[in-house]
Amino acid sequence: MTAHTPLSPPVSPPAAIDLAVTGMSCASCAGRVEKALRAVPGVTAASVNLAGETAHVAYVPGAAADAAALVAAVRRAGYEVPQQQVRLQIEGMSCASCAGRIEKALLAVPGVTAASVNLAGETAEATLPRGSDAAALVAAVEKAGYHARPFDDRIAAATDETPDTDPRAVAAMRERNLALLTLALSLPLMAGMGFELAGRHDLMLPGWVQFAIATPVQFLLGWRFYRAGWSALKAGTGNMDLLVALGTSAAWGLSTWMLLAAPAGAMPHLYFEGSAAIIAFVRIGKWLEARAKGQTVAAMRALMKLRPATARIRRDDGREEEVPTAALQPGMRLVVRAGEAFAADGEITEGHGSIDEAMLTGESLPVDRGAGAAVHAGTINRDGMIVARVTATGAETALGRIVRLVESAQASKPPIQKLVDRISAVFVPAVVAVAIATFLAAFLVAGLDAETALVHAIAVLVIACPCALGLATPAALMVGTGMAARHGILIKDAGALEQARHLQLVAFDKTGTLTEGRPQVTDIIAADGGDGDALLADAASLQAGSQHPLAEAVRRRAGDTGRLQAVADFRDHAGRGITGRLTGRLAGRPGDRMLAFGNARLMQEQGIDTAALQARAQQLAQAGRTVSWLAQTAPEKKLLGLVGFGDEPKPTAAAAITRLRDMGIATAMLSGDSRGAAATVGRRLGIDRVEAEVLPQDKARLIASLRREAAGPVAMVGDGVNDAPALAAADVGIAMGSGTDVAMHTAGITLMRGDPALVADAIAIARATDAKIRQNLFWAFAYNLVGIPLAAFGLLNPMIAGAAMALSSVSVLANALLLKRWRPQ
User: Fold this and answer.
1) 715, 732 Cβ separation under 8 angstroms
2) Which residues of the chain have pLDDT under 50?
3) Is the domain defined by 520-646 classed in CATH 3.90.650.10?
4) Eight-class DSSP state of 220
5) In this structure, are strands 566-573 and 520-526 parallel, antiparallel, or unpaired?
6) DSSP secondary structure string for all residues of 350-361
7) CA atoms of 299 and 33, how far apart (whole Å)
8) Domain boundaries, the chain
9) Distance CA 184, CA 180 (A)
């Protein structure tokens, strides 16, 4: 007897990936990365090139090893894998199942750690190691049965587009023409059904005429459903097109069979009008859907078109020349006359004018700009002539960064979408199963004839609509984020939408956020009645290189920089103050002295007794002043005096706090100032809770504490580098656009101008967008939960079901478009 060796399960062919790894400094680093990678299940080999800062990894696809797991392993080892995001324009999607299939195809590409598809925007975004070839992503999408192309410069592309070249407008026009042609051919068939219902059988079209009209509608004008449905089947899944193709083919096939089998001269009951009407209604729905999709991105397209197509530059010989905007380079001199828009970011070198920044910041009133001021692409020079040196062009301008940030938010998914994605993945197979069960139940259990049972099954196939599920979230997200951007609010993270819905408390930084951020020196008090001017000169000398707002206020008050002494051993004590050694002698002022300038905590650390001026300091604090102490710490310790600062609240701050309270949101203020100064500002603005003398590193800890006490999500509003940890720690980080890049990159929402009133507006549009998402999902689910059972019990005619299915997608888009009526208060 011959022994048979059991067959082993098929083994997936090995795959390999090269990862860039940064942060390695020696051979032990390389060894640690190799060890971390080899520990990932499924990895068969890993080698690290220290000089090239790369790691080559061989692994078995389908095991635990994938790009995300490998990147996570490197990061756990203490190193970083630089990532890049590649955006693709997708063509051919029809429903949520399509979006899910493309995501799955992208995630299967070696190196891809994350992928997200936006059905409404017809875009995809994939995250993969920096330097990877995007061609593999395009190939994966094409293999899945769709068309893809890399995103170009969206601003430049939008600038050059006309109604005849705009891809969305062209697609909508094509859908309109095909829909109207299909409807025109289908109307005689639908009229015949009306005559039949009215009892006028003599007015109905003969069977073979119905066949002659319905057949080109089915297989020519309906070919798109077969093509897309077949692509879905080849990929092992299903989509809306497959349901339409199955349902209409069954109706056409049943009618053709009954026509062929009918006795000579007899007129059987045909369903050609049903198959043709379904295709016509779905085509009309696709046309309306294409039009609505164009409106969902209208706000973003308006932003993109702000930059003019051409620009006027001044050559070195003084000659002016008009060039395409795409030809601009940093360093060129841009000439902008009254009424013209800036084609690039720049710095004014000649002239001045009133600049309309409404579309960029939401500020309705023009602002005056002169020599040395920054100007941005897309803003308009309302009067005068300005010459500006170009500092950034194209995608690197402020306008370009805004477009990228908003597009990234539109491509992201709020947490609730994960549930929708899971349902969409099984939706079409489940509907086909329900349709088969409906036929069997009607035919075998209810005893209906095969024709009637098949009609019930066709209605089930046609009524089901995964489109509405797929469009519900991205449509609302695109309209909401686009409208917010038009009013100076950048929502960069879709997760912030859901968190904003439940916000219990908003914490504010004080300086520059609630106050003007431009403090003035109000009091100069020298110890023992000494020279106030000398005290101010010492403070200004010590802070000559500091960019802190208080340092700028001291230098402005000191005025004459010629009286400043040189500084050595300068040190910044975060949240407390500064120390340094003044060198060089000036008239009446000794050199080689170690000084400290800062708050009471710094004085305690330096061992300085402040009792002599403590009463004056308390008086100033109670009046809302910020107090900074100046002391000499070497060669002998002594208190030199104190300086009082005043920083007025912004005009809209109190109203902003009141509006948040009306929205049911508590407020807090986190400040490094003294308790008296912070408390005074808090009382003036009506803030619920004030935390004073807070060090930058403690703000993130306080956010966690506030979250526990509020028993819900907390937002943090700030504008400085020291606010970045708190912005990251908060459930919703809100950065003032007038602040630092670090703050804006950390936050989920950025306000393009430093107006506290925008905080409530940002929360309002986030809540409105999240509400639209939930409304859309409710109606999409309710439609299917009600429609499918009605069809299964034979209560819906297939033609009516087709019309309802087409209208469901349009209704979801129409509901999302209602967000275009939103306006900030």
Assistant:
1) yes
2) 1-11, 561-562, 739-740, 743
3) no
4) I
5) unpaired
6) E--EEEE-HHHH
7) 46
8) 15-76, 85-151, 168-298+410-477+770-821, 310-396, 489-515+649-769, 520-646
9) 6
In 3D, which of 639, 792, 797, 791 has the Cα closest to residue 271? 797
Residue type, 277: A
Q: Where are the alpha helices (DSSP H) in 353-489?
A: 358-361, 398-411, 416-440, 450-463, 466-486
CATH topology of domain 489-515+649-769: Rossmann fold (3.40.50)
**In CATH, what class is 85-151?**
alpha beta
Are residues 577 and 610 in contact, defined by beta-carbon separation less than 8 angstroms? Answer: no
CA distance 575 to 578: 9
The catalytic site residues sit at 509
Question: Which residue in the block uniquely carries the two structure tokens 């009215």?
Answer: 198
- Cα-Cα end-to-end distance for the chain: 89
Dihedral (Cα; 549, 551, 554, 558), 10-degree rounding: -130
Closest CA to 120 of 461, 428, 482, 427: 482
Residue 699: DSSP 8-state = H
**And the tokens for 521?**
């020196």
pLDDT at 544: 80
181 SS3 class: helix
Query: How many angstroms from the chain centroid is the CA of residue 385?
Result: 36
The secondary element (H helix, E strand) that includes residue 160 is helix 154-160
The architecture of the domain spanning 310-396 is Distorted Sandwich (2.70)
- Strands 732-736, 749-751: parallel, antiparallel or unpaired by DSSP? parallel
Q: Which residues pair with 714 in a beta bridge?
A: 505
The CA distance from 783 to 791, in Å, is 12
Per the DSSP assignment, residues forming a β-bridge with 54 are: 20, 49
> For residues 309 and 160, is the Cβ–Cβ distance under 8 A?
yes
CATH code of 15-76, in short, is 3.30.70.100
Structure tokens at 554: 């001291």
In this chain, the answer to whether the domains covering 15-76 and 85-151 adopt an identical fold is yes
Q: pTM for the full model?
A: 0.68
The alpha-carbon radius of gyration of the chain (Å, integer) is 34
Contact, 640 vs 631, CB < 8 A? Answer: yes
pLDDT at 659: 94
